[in-house]
Amino acid sequence: MTSKPTIFDEVREGMIPAHIYNDREIFELEKKNLFSRAWLFVAHESEIPQPGDYVVRKVLNDSFIVVRDEKGEIKAHFNMCLHRGMQVCRAEMGNASHFRCPYHGWSYRNDGRIVGLPFHQEAYGGEAGFSRKGATLLPAPSLDSYNGMIFISMDPDAPPLAEYLGDFAFYLDYYTKQSTSGIELRGPQRWLVNANWKIGAENFAGDMYHTPQTHTSVVEIGLFREPKAEKRKDGNTYWAGNGGGTTYKLPEGDLDERLRYVGYPDEMIERMKQVWSQDQLDVIGKNGFMISAASAFPNMSLVHNWPKVEDGDDVLPFISIRTWQPVSENETEILSWFAVDANAPEEFKELSYKAYLMCFGSTGMFEQDDVENWVSLTNTAKGSMARRLLLNGRMGMLKDGSPVVAPLTPNEFAGPGEAHVGYGEYNQRHLLNRWADYLENEVSEGSVRPVVVGAQPAEGDAEMQAPSTEREVSA
Ligand code: FES
Ligand SMILES: [Fe+2]
C-alpha cells in the first residue's frame, strides 16, 4: 500500500493544498523551519548613511536596531534591554550616539556596548560586581549585505548571502546597481493586509497571467503606453538561484534605444553601461527583455515598471522594493520602499517617485487591485472545503511534467537560470518547492556561542565566569 502524499509531495506536483494559505500549523512550521534560517531583507545602507543613523526593523516578532556605528560599521542589535527586557529603542528611525532604555536607564553605545548603569556602584558594587566590559546588546545571529541591501538571518551558521542569492544576484543588479553610487531609498510605507504572505511573493515572482484580468482598468485608463494588458505574454519569466521574476518584451532597437524606450535619460544609460556586465546588457540590448516584477525567496519582492507620469505619451521608470512580513497565517505587514539610482538627475527622481506612488505603495492602483484578490483567497482558504481542494498550479507544464514552451537558449536570453516566454507558473512552483524543502527539513539541534556579560560572580568564587546573556538555543 502506498502512503498518502504529504502536502509537500503535492506542492512538488504543482497541485497546491488550498489550506496552506491560511493554516495556523503551517505558519508555525514556517516560523520554525523557514524564517529561522533564510536570509531576510531588513534595510538598505542608504537609509543609514551617517554614523548614528538607525532604523528599527522586525524579523517576524523580533525587533532589531539596524545602525551605523561611530566607526561606520553596520550592526543589527536585538532591541531588548539586557536588564529586564524592555525594548531599548522605541522610535522607528533616527540618529543616536547612544540608546537609553526607558525602564531603568541602562544605556548602550550605537555599536551595542553597554556604557551606563544608573547607580552602578550602589546597586551592583561597581565594576567588581558587574563588569560592563564586553557586554553588548545581542547581535543578530547573522548579518550580510549585497549592493548595500542589508539582510539578517536568524541562523548563526547561515551561508554567505552571495551564496544564498546565487545567480539571482545577476537580476538584483538591475534594480539596485544602476551606477557605481548604487540606489537610495524613500520609505518604507508600512501597512497591514489580511492575506497570507506567500501569495504576494508568488505573484511578484511570476504571475504575468493576472495582469490582463486584475489590472484591466489600469491599462484602460491609459496609464501605460501599451494598449493591451496581455502584452505580458510576450515577456519571459526566469528563475535563477534563490529568486525569479518577470520581464517585458521590448520593441526592436539597440541597447540605448531600448533603455530610452522605458524612459531612462542618456546620462543614466551611460552609467548602466559602466556597471553592468556584457550579459546583463545583452538581456536588454540583444535579447530585448526588460525586467519587471521579481521575488527573492522567501519574502522580498522588487518591481520595475514605466507608466506615463505626465500628460503626453512619455513614460518614466520606477523601482520599488518590498518585504512580505508575516504577522500570522492570514495577516501580512507590507514594507514598501521607492528606490532610485543615487546619481539620477533630480527631476528624474521626482517623477520616478510619482510613478511609483501611482502604481504601488498604499496609494498605488496596482496595489488596490491585487490585494482584493489576496484577501479573498486567504479568507476562502480558511474553511473546511479548502482542505479538500488541490489548486492547479501547473501552468506551463504538460501532464508528463515537460514544459509547454521550451526554455530560452543562451542565445535567446543571456541571463542565468531558466527562462520561458509566455504565461506559466514555473516561478511560483520554484518558490513553493523551495518552501517545501525548508518546511520538510527540520532545523537541526544547534547552539550559539555565549556572549559574556558582566554580572556578579557567585560568592566566594571570584574566578567564576560571569553568566552569559546569550543562551544556548536548540530548535
Ligand atoms: S529593563 Fe532596561 S534598564 Fe531595566
Ligand atoms: Fe498585480
Cα-atom Rg, whole angstroms? 24 Å
How would you describe the shape? globular
Q: What is the structural class? A: alpha+beta
- What is the CATH C-level name of the largest domain? Alpha Beta
Structural description of this entry:
The protein is α+β, with helices and mostly antiparallel strands and 475 residues long. It folds into 2 domains: 38-157 and 444-475, Rieske [2Fe-2S] iron-sulphur domain (Rieske Iron-sulfur Protein), CATH 2.102.10.10; 167-439, Naphthalene 1,2-dioxygenase Alpha Subunit, Chain A, domain 1 (Alpha-Beta Complex). The chain has helices at 7-12, 24-34, 120-124, 126-129, 161-165, 168-176, 197-206, 211-214, 216-220, 255-261, 266-275, 278-285, 346-359, 365-380, 426-440, and strands at residues 15-17, 39-44, 53-59, 62-68, 74-78, 93-95, 98-100, 107-109, 114-116, 142-146, 149-153, 183-193, 236-240, 243-249, 289-296, 300-305, 318-328, 331-341, 390-392, 418-421. A hairpin with a 3-residue loop joins strand 15 and strand 16 (300-305). The two termini are 34 Å apart. The structure holds FE2/S2 (inorganic) cluster and fe (ii) ion. Fe (ii) ion binds at residues 210, 214-215, 366, 370. The site of fe (ii) ion has 5 residues, from helix 14.
Q: What topology does this entry show?
A:
Blueprint: H1 7-12, E1 15-17, H2 24-34, E2 39-44, E3 53-59, E4 62-68, E5 74-78, E6 93-95, E7 98-100, E8 107-109, E9 114-116, H3 120-124, H4 126-129, E10 142-146, E11 149-153, H5 161-165, H6 168-176, E12 183-193, H7 197-206, H8 211-214, H9 216-220, E13 236-240, E14 243-249, H10 255-261, H11 266-275, H12 278-285, E15 289-296, E16 300-305, E17 318-328, E18 331-341, H13 346-359, H14 365-380, E19 390-392, E20 418-421, H15 426-440
Antiparallel strand pairs: 1-19, 2-11, 3-4, 3-6, 4-5, 7-8, 8-9, 10-11, 12-18, 13-14, 13-20, 14-15, 15-16, 16-17, 17-18
The structure holds FE2/S2 (inorganic) cluster (FES) and fe (ii) ion.
